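Shipment paperwork, digital attachment
Item: protein structure file
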Amino acid sequence: MAHSGFESSPKRGGPSVFVPAPQAYAMAAIMYAMGFIGLLALLRSRGAGRLGVWLGAALFVAAAAGLVCLVQWP
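Attachment content:
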């Protein structure tokens, strides 16, 4: 995916869909942003203090960076 994109095929047949790399990166960034906003909303609704929100945000960013490193690892 890092160089040319990816292709997806439905399980029950039908036409496959090709997603070019720039759109795939934009889609992944949007999904991470939605997850980050959801995490912040969940922490705030649970009454987490400022330290808890900062810690949760830092752990989320660290996990996202770790996943990117894991995917790039040969």
